[in-house]
């Protein structure tokens, strides 16, 4: 009876992605990383290719070799929601929604002014209609 294959977790995939990126940045091969880790090349290759999980000990060793924090190996370098295209789409949607709300508000304001020009007056003075009817600013006083 064969053992059930356990898929690599999302965290493991993030770690592999970050390790591959660091390997590229440092122009380091899997073989060189394996040598510095004290592991076999096949051990490192299986993990870099998302065939097996990295252990916490592996991540600690790698971060020490590269002089970085272990958290840099498990935090996504670029979240898909942070890509420039996603941010631009989000910003465009926000701007379109704001423009629609402002347009609706302007239309409602114009409608209210047509019905009663003094409806939007800030002054809550009950005598304001006397001013509207007479046109004399002192008439309301």
TrEMBL record:
Region called Disordered, residue ranges: 113-141
Organism: Bifidobacterium parmae
Single Gene Ontology MF annotation: DNA binding
Protein name, entry field: Uncharacterized protein
InterPro entries documented for this protein: Lambda_DNA-bd_dom_sf
